[in-house]
Specification:
This protein is mainly alpha-helical and about 250 residues long. About 70% of the residues lie in helices and about 5% in strands. The protein contains eleven helices and two strands. Strands 1-2 form a two-stranded antiparallel ribbon. A hairpin with a 5-residue loop joins strand 1 (about 80) and strand 2. The chain is elongated. The model has no long low-confidence stretch (mean pLDDT about 90). It comes from Variovorax soli. It holds the Pfam family GntR. Keywords: DNA-binding, Transcription, Transcription regulation. This is DNA-binding FadR family transcriptional regulator.
Length: about 250
């Protein structure tokens, strides 16, 4: 490293303003400082954090304590820890993994009940369909139509798993058409929990999904939000009743 590079690195690290922290719950305080630096834009996606030895010296903690904080940040999706000569701790761009995993864990822990899941899906889908009617593009429509075509093939082939995956992906594609990342991430999380729920119920006949999809696509192409919402609500309420019947019979 040249003298100029060293000065640039030193200036960058000094600008971050890391502060020594108290020993009690030290890793939480370290993580909080790094989160604050990301929140204020002083650390940006792609930035590499200072080396472990430098960070531990600035925070006045052991390397083990520092690593605990970095692992916590990695689990939260804030940073990525890379190994090797070009490795280190790098700030990540935002991703949906943490939210999706969190909802899945809440479902497995019992904090999210099947009735909460199916009910929330109905409410969320109404918003998604109405906004998508206003914002979806021709590319969005073609992606949705291709999804239905693939699901039709999987259905004819008797491939339950592929059909179920494509049915869930349809909702994610529709959510993406809203151009709102919060809605997209929320739908992704709900559909991931639905995957766990359907897996617990097991395969079942579902002759009404694909006909409903085709009717919905016609309404979306016509930008008829009221008709599209009515179709989606009718379909999901029927599916919800079917799922809950299967779930309740499974528990008996």
């Amino acid at each position: 490293m040249s003298h100029a590079d060293f000065r640039t690195k030193e200036a960058f690290e000094s600008s971050l303003g890391f502060e020594p922290i108290a020993p009690s719950r030290a890793f939480e305080e370290i993580a909080a400082q790094i989160r604050e630096l990301v929140a204020t834009g002083r650390l940006k996606p792609g930035d590499r954090l200072p080396a472990e030895r430098d960070l531990s010296a600035k925070f006045k903690v052991s390397r083990n304590t520092l690593r605990e904080a970095l692992r916590a940040l990695e689990l939260s999706g804030m940073i990525e820890l890379r190994k090797g000569a070009a490795g280190g701790a790098f700030v990540l761009p935002g991703n949906s993994g943490v939210v999706v995993n969190g909802l899945r864990d809440l479902y497995h822990l019992g904090a999210i009940k099947p009735e909460h899941l199916t009910e929330a899906r109905v409410w969320l889908s109404e918003i998604v369909v109405r906004v998508a009617c206003e914002r979806l593009t021709e590319e969005d429509l073609k992606a949705l139509e291709a999804n239905v075509a693939q699901a039709t093939k999987a259905d004819k082939a008797g491939n339950f798993q592929e059909r179920a995956d494509l049915h869930r992906e349809f909702h994610n594609l529709l959510a993406a058409a809203t151009r709102n990342p919060i809605i997209e991430i929320t739908m992704e999380g709900v559909m991931e929990v639905m995957r766990e729920f359907v897996k617990a119920i097991g395969p079942s006949d579902n002759p009404y999904t694909l006909p409903s999809r085709r009717r919905l696509l016609k309404h979306l192409r016509a930008r008829d939000a009221d008709a599209a919402v009515a179709e989606m609500n009718k379909f999901l309420e029927r599916l919800q009743a079917n799922y809950m019947e299967l779930w309740n019979s499974r528990k008996q």
